[in-house]
Write a structure and sequence with these properties.
The complex is a heterodimer of chains A (487) and B (95). Chain A is α+β, with helices and mostly antiparallel strands and 487 residues long. Chain A contains 16 helices and 15 strands. β8 of chain A pairs antiparallel with β2 of chain B.
Chain lengths: 487, 95
């Protein structure tokens, strides 16, 4: 039996406003508990919400970037449930008339293919506070601690159609959402701080089947890696269950990263009746056509447009252009290196190769890169003008990463300049030929077709003797002349 | 029309209110009256009438994005039955 996995994602994105969606309390991350929770956030009697204009502007920017319909008239509703981190007893959210309607985006997969994922809608709502349990906060008397700093932080919840068919597609979609919100500057997108969180609806069905299987919802996935693993393990659990004659139960599940399994969250099942109704404290929000069009005019260049421009302007492959434009800071860095060095392709290779490896190794973002764009451009310029070989360039790069200055300073200080002097290279070649009588003999007796391959040994010896500094093109040329002269 | 006891119990659970056995009948008939009123409203022809989100025919005024609220944690914490280390304490909740 061939199974098909069907995935829809609900992504919560915290908007980067200064103040909360319905109050003037700060949204800054990391403050002391409850120092940013005002009377409105605490649901004190008599308080009333006043919506933050910036949250609407950000939501409209997102909608336009998703090619979505904009809800020029949107309405807030109350989603009722009791939990200690939600003081009002309801979450103010949108249901029937959300700020962003249907839309679609293109996602790019690792095999180079693309796919369109439809957006069901996106709505504005408020975040809840945080409950701290004994793992992080031990009162010693079996209580939970409540921090309401996060309560009322503006969120957009982005709901996709069930259009994804693998964990990899789900990750590609989420990366695209991440890319769009950070390009727009409407969220910092920091998953480790909960700025972007994801719930995955997962079901399985036999390939070719039209009807969707019963789905489960995996809650609170907070890294790309966990999302991929959680979806894979949950899909497999459902397949095993059905193949063993069981039935999938519609429920909320939690992913346990340590055990790499999902488990049922029974407590959430009981009260799954939110009794939505329009919030009487808030009037409908109406946005004018001019307002929306002005926001459209102010949108920055988005990842897809930037990707297309990189292909055209810099002659990059679709894959390279996509990789470089996923995150705005990477795209900016690349453009600086390309402009300063005048070598877009080399710049692309270095940014995605050595630089990415360095940042990965040191767990740094490109904004914290120990090698800045100007230094990398300087290094590429020296490869281009033949001062150093690509191999030596890696050595120079490492030195720059260690803070030894720019490329020219490193090359000078370490004496790494490429040897392109004919006399010097001839001497190196002569020395190696003289010291390798057996290999020379083999070369002479070999089939002419096999000789080019056999040159590798000599090139290697010569490179070693020159400490990697001899110009490889010149070695090849001189070596071939000298060996051929011996035939 | 009365609301059955099971529904009353579920509503009470969702609203976190205690309804004793003895009062279920009374609550049931009073809720039934409310529903009857709703049924009367349902009978009105609303073809072509846009659903109303709010009785005031006004639109929401929005506020500029600025931090205006000072930290009044100690005053608020003092109102809570229990607090510790700047946190409100509640009976243990965990999923």
């Amino acid at each position: 039996m061939e199974w098909e996995v069907v995935i829809g994602l609900e992504v919560h994105v915290q908007l980067a406003t200064q103040s909360k969606i319905f109050s003037g309390a700060s949204t800054a991350f990391g403050a002391d508990p409850n120092t940013q929770a005002c009377a409105v956030d605490l649901a004190m009697p008599g308080t009333l919400p006043v919506p933050n204009e910036e949250a609407f502007r950000f939501a409209v920017m997102f909608g336009l970037a998703m090619n979505a319909e904009i809800g020029k008239r949107s309405v807030f509703e109350r989603k009722n449930y009791f939990y200690p981190d939600l003081p009002k007893g309801y979450q103010t959210t949108q249901l029937e008339q959300p700020i962003v309607g249907k839309g679609q985006i293109e996602i790019h997969l690792e095999d180079g293919s693309s796919k369109t994922v439809r957006l069901h809608h996106a709505h504005l709502e408020e975040d809840a506070g945080k409950s701290l349990h004994d793992a992080v906060f031990d009162t010693g008397h079996g209580m939970s601690g409540i921090d309401l700093n996060r309560a009322g932080t503006p969120l957009i919840e982005i709901v996709s159609e069930p259009d994804m068919r693998s964990a990899a597609e789900a990750v590609a979609y989420l990366k695209k959402i991440h890319s769009i919100v950070t390009y727009l500057g409407i969220s910092d997108g920091d998953m480790s701080q909960g700025s972007l969180r994801c719930d995955a609806n997962v079901s399985v069905r036999l390939k070719g089947e039209e009807e969707l299987g019963t789905r489960t919802e995996i809650k609170n996935l907070n890294s790309f890696r966990f999302i991929e693993k959680a979806i894979k393990v949950e899909a497999q659990r459902q397949i095993d269950l059905i193949e063993d004659g069981g039935k999938v139960v519609q429920e909320t599940r939690l992913y346990d990263a340590d055990k790499n399994e999902t488990r049922s969250m029974r407590s959430k099942e009981v009260a799954n009746d939110y009794r939505y109704f329009p919030c009487p404290d808030l009037l409908p929000v109406v946005l004018s056509d001019e307002y929306v069009e002005q926001i459209r005019g102010d949108l920055p260049e988005l990842p897809d447009a930037k990707c297309a421009r990189f292909e055209k302007e810099y002659g990059l492959s679709a894959y390279d252009a996509d990789q470089l434009t996923q995150e705005r800071p990477t795209a900016n860095y690349f453009e600086q290196v390309a402009a300063k060095s005048g070598e877009a392709k080399l710049a692309a290779n270095w940014v995605m190769g050595e630089l990415a490896a360095l940042l990965n190794r040191e767990e740094k973002s490109i904004e914290q890169s120990p090698v800045n764009a100007e230094h990398l451009a300087g290094l590429i310029a020296r490869i281009k003008d033949g001062t150093i070989s690509s191999k030596i360039a890696k050595q120079v790069f490492e030195a720059m990463a260690n803070g030894d200055g720019d490329a020219d300073a490193v090359i000078e200080a370490k004496g790494l300049k490429q040897v392109s002097d004919t006399g010097a290279i001839e001497k190196l070649v002569d020395d190696v030929i003289a010291a390798s009588t057996a290999q020379v003999e083999n070369y002479r007796n070999a089939d002419p077709d096999k000789r080019p391959k056999m040159m590798g040994f000599f090139v290697g010896q010569i490179m070693k003797a020159s400490k990697g500094q001899a110009n490889p093109q010149m070695i090849n040329k001189i070596l071939k002349e000298k060996l051929d002269a011996l035939l | 029309m009365a609301v059955d006891a099971q529904t009353i119990e579920k509503l009470a659970e969702l609203a976190r209110i205690a309804i004793s056995e003895e009062t279920i009948d009374e609550v049931s008939s009073r809720l039934g009256d409310v529903l009857q009123l709703v049924d009367q409203l349902q009978a009105v022809n609303t073809d072509g009438v846009e659903p109303m989100a709010h009785p005031l025919d006004e639109v929401q005024v929005l506020r500029k994005d600025a931090v205006t609220e000072p930290n009044r944690r100690e005053a608020f914490l003092a109102l809570a039955p229990q607090s510790e280390a700047g946190l409100y304490l509640v009976p243990k909740v965990i999923d």
